[in-house]
Hints:
The protein has 645 residues and is α+β, with helices and mostly antiparallel strands. 43% of the residues lie in helices and 14% in strands. Strand 4 and strand 5 form a beta hairpin.
Amino acid sequence: MCGICGIIGTDPRQVEPAVRTMMRAMVHRGPDDEGYEQRPIGPGTSAVAGLGFRRLAILDLSPAGHQPMVNPDTGDVLVFNGEIYNFRDLRTRLAGEGIEVRSSGDTEVLLKAVSHWGEKAIDLLDGMFAFAFYEARGRRILLARDHVGIKPLYVAQVRGAFVFASEVRAVLSSGIVPGDVDPAGIATFLAYGAPQDPFTIHRGIRSFPSGSFCWIDAGAADGDAALRPTRFWNYPRVDAAATEAEELERIRDSLLVVMRDQSVADVPVGVFLSGGIDSAVIAAKARKCMPSLRTHAVGFESGSLKDERAAAAATARALGTTHSQTVLDHSRITQLWRDWLAAADRPSIDGLNTFIVSGAVKADGMTVALSGLGADELFGGYPQFQSVPALYRWLRPFVGLPHGLRRAAASALFAPLRSNRRVRAVEILAGCDSPLDVLLRIRRVFTDADLAGLGLRSADLGLSRHWLAAEEYGQLARDATPDTFHTISEAEMRLYLGNTVLRDADANSMAHSLEVRVPFLSRQLIECVARLPGSMHLPRDGEQKHLLRQIGRQVLPEEVFQRPKTGFSLPIGQWMYGGLRDECDAAIETLAACPAVDAAAVRAKWRWFIDNRHRTYWDRPLAMVALGSYLRRVPGFGGPGLGGV
């Protein structure tokens, strides 16, 4: 787990200083080592590629794991962030074709694999990764990102340079890419609580698509050559012929292989342990691979809030792990809230829990933590898997009627509801033509009416009516099937998981130099589970995450399945309107100065939240505060830059 960055530039004098500045902006991602390599790009040009790296040593702690790594046989160069979990199998395959791998880690395996098999090697990988591979023979660079986007990769094209990095802050720190805000990116953030791919908050910076690769040459530095990534992975299609008994056995076997591979490290590995099923299954399976497994839970001293310390401790006792916990008092959590906002690589309403837990686990001596992220999307743990089909059945008689007629009927039907609920109900009835549409409406933070009041309209920004990039919504709509469970699972995986959960997990763990692994998102396991029909995932009168519960009951005590879901709740609303009010007010004033939104509307919306705090969920005011806090650190909005953590 590391940080990568690079520039293809037409001015060789500019490239190395800029890349080294980018590396300094990501020291938190790799405190153990750094490296830089420069190579010529393209025939007949003076353009060069500078590749930079920051290392968090996980596998092969020796200098043999140093990056950028050079293949002495070909002159190819690699910078790589992530882990290739099936690297031992690939090493054996390479050896069978006469390719020697000298080091014990996965980086040289990846380098030799791409040198030997070219872009075809990418489809052989099971892992989390974002990498840049310099092909010496063709003087070009291959960029690639893992199947579901566990590891981030951002790109920018300006006249004279193509820039890429693991973090937005690194791209901006190059001094080459301006930090101008993007109204479309801001709109997608306010709509969903995190910028939606390919957008960022900045006009010139885009997220490289997950499950894709792209060759980059000197033309990219001209600013005119558009990137044309190629997809190497798509969400599996439904296999209606699957039978539960056979598939459960297949899932058990896959999960065992996944845990075996993801338990490999040359540094201490532990598990984020809550009181729920997801992390308990991970811990139980990891326990078979690591007899001295360590688990960690975080809670806080409060008479009014719940945490999962007792439940996590009970699970740890049942599994026989070495368990520890961190207890935070109110003052410490509020300081961590400030630190979380200050460390953000991009605005988000999520991720505070991960920031807090990651800091505690790192302080406990671990460098790698296994997490249960992805289980809800894959196995159907969210309420949406039940509520969306139910709501769509109610809406279906209205589908096909003109939207204007539906809106008029909905306005009359929902008139007795309170203001915000009425607006949401009207937008659902008037604007949803499919289960996918219903899901996207349910997932929204700010409504269409809210965003219009702030001066944002999707059509004016080139977005779909659901405030997504047109191509992203179009792809989801094309992939939608009559199996509503499958449609919801793919959308949750691509949108909420890909744009919010995974980005926040990466940024907030790496802020503490901690690697988080997500076994449920192994390519092998996703391809095993996601193809199963919704009737198997959620049988009639069955429980949520039916298949995972069946797997878990073989390795966990029954009491784990009887506990009510509590979660790690934090009084964010109380903080914003209480002890952190002055800081929040300052963030709102910064947001009001943003040219993408209407200043008076921003202030009016904030005042409405304050006046109606007891009837307002915390996500909408936090979205405004998080965005304003982020902009305060962007040049032009009162700050010198995002800098490092």
